[in-house]
Amino acid sequence: MIAAGALSALAAFAHLGCIVFGAPWYRALGAGEWIARAAEAGDPYPTSITLAIAAVLGLWSLYAFSGAGLVRRLPLLRTALCAITGVYLLRGSVLPPVMAAFPGRSAAFWWWSSGICLGIGLVHLVGLIQAWPALRARKG
Fold first, then answer.
1. Residue 140: what pLDDT?
2. Which of 22, 79, 104, 109 satisfies CB 3.0 to 4.6 Å to 32 for a cystine?
3. Position 79 in a domain
4. Residue 92 domain-assigned (yes or no)
5. Among positive and negative, which fits the CA dihedral 127, 131, 137, 140?
6. Is residue 118 part of a domain?
7. Residue 58: domain span
8. Cβ-count burial of 53 within 10 angstroms (0-12 exposed, 13-18 middle, 19+ buried)?
9. Complete DSSP assignment for 5-49
10. Which is more confident, 92 or 140?
11. 2-21 and 107-131 helices cross at what angle (nearest 10)?
């Protein structure tokens, strides 16, 4: 779970890097040319959506660290960790429908991002399986 938390945190920081470093990072990370241009123009949309994604990834990181016992136990820990793992695995494995739903990004972006999500999902799955007995809800 520590590795899973670190990977989610790294993903969150990469998204924050887009906000700090702007259009070149949006382009490098494959957000799409229209997002990069919107960031260059000072449109608040890229920053808003990127902050939201970074916040979710940061929360997922905290849940993984909680599952590892590094931070206090968070509410609905097992349920959240199962859902997080499922989202990563689903995002990593449903490439064609995701590509069709979000046009404007390169095929390379979709293959790389799907591979990364699948990898992070597998790390979460392994961590979840290893930590499962310790994740039982504590009584009173």
1. 40
2. 104
3. yes
4. yes
5. negative
6. yes
7. 2-135
8. middle
9. HHHHHHHHHHHHHHHHH-HHHHHHTT--HHHHHHHHTT-HHHHHH
10. 92
11. 150
Tokens 């199962």 -> residue: 82
Burial (Cβ within 10 Å: 0-12, 13-18, ≥19) of residue 64: buried
Token pair in block for residue 126:
């392994």
69 by DSSP, 3-state: which? coil
Q: Which residue has the tokens 């899973």?
A: 4
Report field, pTM of the whole predicted structure over 0.85: yes
| Alpha-carbon span 34 to 102, nearest angstrom | 12
Structure tokens at 79: 């349920």
Express each pLDDT in 89-102 by its tens digit: 999 998 777 777 77
> Packing angle between helix 107-131 and helix 77-93, nearest 10 degrees?
150
Amino acid in the structure at residue 112 = W
Distance between CA atoms of 139 and 43, rounded to whole angstroms? 49
Number of domains in the chain: 1
Q: Which residue has the tokens 């997002």?
A: 35
Amino acid at residue number 89: L
140 within domain boundaries = no
